Amino acid sequence: MRAALVAVGIALLVTGAVLDRTGWWGWAGEVTESTVLVIALVVLAVGGLLARSRAVAARWIGAVTTAGSGVVAAVELVGAVRDGLPGPAVGVLLVGVAAVVGGAVARVARVTARRHLVGSAGVVVVAVAAAVGAGPVVDTPHRTTTDAPISDTAFITRGDTVRWTWSAGGPVADVVPIRGGVAVLRGSDGPRGDAPEDVDAQVGGPGDETVALDGTTGAPRWTFRHGQRRVDALTPSPDGTVLAVSYVLPGRRAVVTVLDAASGATRFTVVTPIRRGVLQLTERVLTVLEPLPAPVPTSSSSSRPETTYRLVAHRLEDGGQAWTWTPPSGCTLGDLWSPTLGPPGRWTLATRDVGVTPLDCGRDRVLTGLDDRTGAVRWSTPGVAMVTPDGEVVGAEPTVTALPDGSAVLVGGAPAQVVDAATGAARPVPGLGEFDLGAVRPGPVRALALTEGLPTGSIDPRTGAIVPLPAEAPGECSTPEGAVAVTDTGTLRFCGAGFALRVDDGPVLPVDLGPPAPDGADPDRDTLLYRRSADVVLPAPGALVLTTTRTDPAVVVGVA
C-alpha cells in the first residue's frame, strides 16, 4: 500500500499540472510557468517511481530524491499561495507532493506489522485531501470579513456637514464608489512602480487591503486582501455592484479578482497572459485580451509574427465564458491602446452594456461597440487616422477613456471626440488636446479639461462642449493644490492648502484628514494610484468622500 500511496501522489501531480495548463476552473499558467517548480515536480515523480522498485538501493535513491525535490516543490507552491496565486491546481499539487514524499520515505522506513492498514488509511486520507484541498487553498491568502449589512443609498453630490471619519491606519492609495458607499485601497508602504519589470520590487510586507465603507455611517462593511501583491487598479462596474481588483505579476501577466461589492465575496478570478488584460467592465461582463495563435512565418520572412489578440468575455455572476470576439480581417486588437487615463488604470474601460473596442485597421483606427450580452457588433465609427496621406504617423498610442458615468468614451486626437457608447454617434470636442484631460474617476462627475496642467473646464457628455469652471475668489480654495469635481448640480472643490471643501460659491468647510506624511517617507506615493492627483473629492452613495495621500495615517471623511 505504500507503493500505492506513491502512485496516487504521482497521479495527483499529473492532475494538478493538467488543471494548471488547461485553465480549468478559470486558472491557467498560475504555477507551472515556474521552471524551478516544473523541474522539481519531474524529479519528484522520477524519485517516486524509483521508490516503488523492489531493489533496496533504488528505494533509498528514490526516497532521498523525493525528499529533496519535494522540499523545493513545496517551497515554490507555498510561495505561490503567499503571493496570491492559489487556485485549484496548487491544492492538488501540494497534496500530491506530500503523498509522493510520504510514500517514498515509508518504503525505506520501518513500519508496524499493520503496514497494510496504515497504507490503506494513507491512500484514503490523500484521496480525500486532494478532493477538498483545492477550495481551502484558493482562499488561503484572502482575508474577507463582513461587519455591516448593505444599505442602498443615492449618490450625494452636495453637502455641508461632516457626517463621519475613518482612519485608514496607513496610507490610502485609491478610493472608488461602489454600491452602498466606497471602496478604499489601504496601501502598504513603499513605492509603486508602473513598468512590468518593477513588479518584483512590489512584493513584500502585508500587501494592500481593500476596505468597503458604508456611505452613510463610514463603518467598514468588509475587507479584502489577496496575498502580498500590490493592487494595480480598483475598477467598479458602472452600476457599482461589482468591484474588479487587479494587480500585475512577474512575466507581464495580470490577475483580476472580481468581488461582490455588497459582501466582498469573491465571484471569480482571471489570470491574463498580458499585463494590459482588462479592457472593459460593463454591467454584465468583464472582457480580457487573449493572444491568438501566432501565424506560421513564411520562408520569405524571417521576422517574428506580431502577437494579435481576441476578446474573451466572462459573466460577472460566475466568471463563465459568455462569448469571444475576433477582429475582422485586416484589423488587429493590439495591447497598446489606453482605455483610460493614468497608468495602470488606463487599461480599464467601464461602460453600461456595450464593450467599446479600439482596432487598428491599416492606416486607420476604428472604434467598435460590442453588445455585452452576445458580443455582436452594434456599431463602428472611425477614430483618428494612424497615418496621414503624406505618410506621417499620428502617435502610436491614442487616448481612449470612458467618461465617468459610462455613457460615452472620449477619444483623444485633433480634434478629440465624445463617442456615445450606445449608438456610436461621435461629437467633436474643439480645443481639447491629447494631454489636456484631467484624471477620470468613476461616478456622476464630468471629465475635466486642463490648461497647463490645471483644471479650467468640464466636458458635457451630451454635447461635447467644454464648460468653463466658475471663477474662484482668492483664498485657500484658489491654490493649485487640491482637486475639483463637477457634477450636473454644481462644482466641488477640495481646498488643498488647508484641507477643506467648498460647494459652488458656498462657505468653506474644514475637514481633518490626518497628520502630514513624514518627509521622505515615500517619494513615489504622491498620487492616488496613478490618477494624477494627491487629493480627491468623490460623490458616492451616502456621502461626498474626501481623502488625500499627503497624510499618514490617512483619514477618509464623509460629508453630506
Short précis:
This protein is α+β, with helices and mostly antiparallel strands and 560 residues long. Helices cover 20% and strands 31% of the residues.
Describe this structure in words.
- The protein has helices at 2-22, 35-51, 56-82, 88-108, 115-138; strands spanning 145-146, 155-156, 162-167, 172-178, 181-186, 209-214, 220-224, 233-236, 242-249, 253-260, 266-272, 278-281, 285-291, 309-315, 321-325, 331-332, 354-361, 364-371, 377-385, 400-402, 408-411, 416-420, 426-429, 448-451, 454-459, 466-468, 482-486, 491-495, 500-503, 509-510, 535-541, 543-548, 555-559.
- The chain is of the alpha+beta class and 560 residues long.
- It folds into two domains: 2-138, no CATH class; 145-296 and 303-559, Methylamine Dehydrogenase, Chain H (7 Propeller), CATH 2.130.10.
- The protein has a five-stranded antiparallel sheet, with no helix packed on it.
- α1 runs antiparallel to α4 and α4 packs antiparallel against α5.
- The protein is globular and about 90 Å long.
- The chain crosses the membrane at residues 35-53, 60-81, 87-105, 117-138.
- Keywords: Membrane, Transmembrane, Transmembrane helix.
- InterPro entries: Quinoprotein_ADH-like_sf.
